[in-house]
Amino acid sequence: MNIRKCQQHLAGGLGTVRFTAPESSFLGRTARTIHAMASAYESDGLAFCASGDLVNGLACFFYGFGWLHFGYAFGVFGPPVEAACPFMGECDALPSEYREKLEEKTRRYCRLLDTARSSVAPGPDPATSAFVFSEQVLCIAWLYARQGSVFLDSGRFEDALACFSYGHGWLDAAVTAGLYRITAERDLFTV
Q1: Residues near 25 by Cβ (< 8 Å), separated by ≥ 6?
Q2: Residue 131 lies in a domain
Q3: Dihedral, CA of residue 41, residue 44, residue 46 and residue 49, to nearest 10
Q4: Strand (E) positions, the chain?
């Protein structure tokens, strides 16, 4: 998928979000925060692309998708009207002038996601469904870290960066929703 198409899918997904909880409730406020963050990453991605920074644009769009998809899984957004999946095929290769920046950022995001995963601990009591969901989010972050590493090892840097950004978006949204205690590296999260 090319960057522009990814942005269009993200914008479409954000534009059709239905909030499931009353606005003044804890879940309603959390839903609006999640939506605002996903929207901010979409907006940042547009700004990066407009300035010619396709690497950061790509990272922003996939990070935003992580937030958006977390909102659906957390249940604060109603079922999506349209399927907005950024992983419908591999990412288009960026022009060669981006290669050095892309490789550096991808390797850095690999380390950041690994550090973020080890910097949180589930907050809910182990006997609750919230704890089970927090474990599922850690599994999702692990799966995207693993898949990103596979792409990284095979030189598919665009796909690797997409995976690392998406997985970190999920984890960041879950921290914001209160599913984790931050035990280290607080600066890796938006709370």
Answers
A1: none
A2: yes
A3: -120
A4: 120-122, 180-182
Q: Which domain holds residue 48?
A: 3-85+98-188
69 part of a folded domain: yes
| Mean pLDDT confidence for 144-158 | 97
Instruction: Report the number of distinct structural domains present in the chain.
Output: 1
Q: How far is CA 81 from CA 16, 18, 39, 113, in A?
A: 6, 9, 17, 30
pLDDT in tens, 1-24: 688 888 999 999 999 999 999 999
Residue whose token pair is 């992580």: 66
pLDDT tens per residue across span 174-191: 999 999 999 999 999 998
- C-beta atoms surrounding 139 within 10 Å: 10
